[in-house]
Amino acid sequence: MKNTKKPLVTALSFAFALVAYLIADSAIAGQVPDAVPPKATDNAELANIEQILSQVHHCNKSITLRSQGLTPEKVASACQELIAQEDKFHQTFNTLNKPVADDNNHSLRANFYSSRAEYVKYATAHFNMPTDNGGMYLEGYPERKGNHAEFVAYERDGGLWNLSHEYIHYLDGRFNRYGDYCNGLHDDHAGPEFCPSPNLSYPHGVWWSEGVAEYIAWGKNNPKAAEIAASKSYPLSELFNTSANTNGGSDRVYRWGYLAVRFMMENHRDEVEKSLVLSRQGDWLGYQDLMRTWSTSMDKEWFTWLESIAVQAEKSVKTAP
Ligand SMILES: [Zn+2]
After folding, report:
1. Residue 217: which domain range?
2. How far is the CA of 298 from the centre of ligand 1 (A)?
3. Angle at alpha carbon of residue 231, lines to 230 and 235, rounded to 5°
């Protein structure tokens, strides 16, 4: 399943990796320039990317913030937040800072326009991406030298929304999962990604990708997920079939994804470790085989666990000031 999109890209004769991750509260998808700077030639009147996103700050060697007008205070707090997330991620997965093979995404650059209007005005020209969304994570072709992972968004209500969630996608992609977006297990093959080989068989990997981004970002304190736990809407075995299109929806992808990942991390870490060995190699058939052995075996325990999460959530509501 590796590199299946290459013939298409060649055929289209432009060098863009097309990748997408949904981010909380807005369906987003994107594409990223491959090793060459994005071109704005169709919009010659627009200033180039370096002129518009002129503020560049390196939080550390893994994270760069580029913006139109982030205040020094916002830059400092964003760096602090991301570095804390990075530490937490490496501790949680004991990565020893060792990326998967063929990964050249040495750092993430987070790009922030100063408003939605500026985002709409420039992002398509700067990154060749649609702007009918809240922001995009652009993984690109991690196996290619010079590739740079980009997050493109805008300041909204004074905040940098989804920043931690997106950064976890970057870390998960670099340390837990081989290959680019099209290489993984999902049913997202519509534009602008155009991943050419549909992974139509279940289970998929969306529960993990979105769930782990929420799990690391929120930790044990995710009130929106706790709120819906009592409904017991899905057996765990069904959540492994969560995907972008057919079995999607915001609650299922993010809240139930969070609950599924948290349950597995807290109660079946040994199985998670087995799955990571496979996902780090890009052995998606093996990954599916493993999940099929899980099947419904944990569903009963899952429902009991959901009850405990719901009870804890109720208690914390009652004791809140
Ligand atoms: Zn996401």
Report:
1. 206-319
2. 25
3. 105
Query: 133 C-alpha vs ligand 1 centroid, how far in Å?
Result: 13
Please indicate, yes or no, whether residues 255 and 119 belong to a single structural domain of this protein: no
- The catalytically annotated residue of 150, 155, 166, 193 is 166
Same domain (yes/no): 41, 148: yes
Are both 10 and 133 inside the same structural domain? yes
Residue pair 133/29 in contact by the 8 Å Cβ criterion: yes
Claim to verify: residue 173 and residue 273 sit in the same structural domain: no
Q: Which protein residues have a CB closer than 5 Å to ligand 1 (ion)?
A: 21, 23, 210, 213
pLDDT per residue over 31-81, tens digit each? 333 333 334 444 545 679 999 999 999 999 999 999 999 999 999 999 999
166 catalytically annotated: yes
Instruction: Look at the pTM and tell me if it is higher than 0.90.
Output: no
CATH of the domain at 53: 3.40.30.160
Residue 34, burial from CB neighbour count under 10 angstroms (0-12, 13-18, 19+): middle
pLDDT tens string 196-220: 776 778 999 999 999 999 999 999 9
My answer on whether 246 and 283 are in the same domain is yes
Q: What is the pLDDT of residue 312?
A: 86
Phi first, then psi, for residue 60 (nearest 5°) are -160, -165
State which residues of the chain have pLDDT below 70: 1-46, 189-194, 198, 319-321
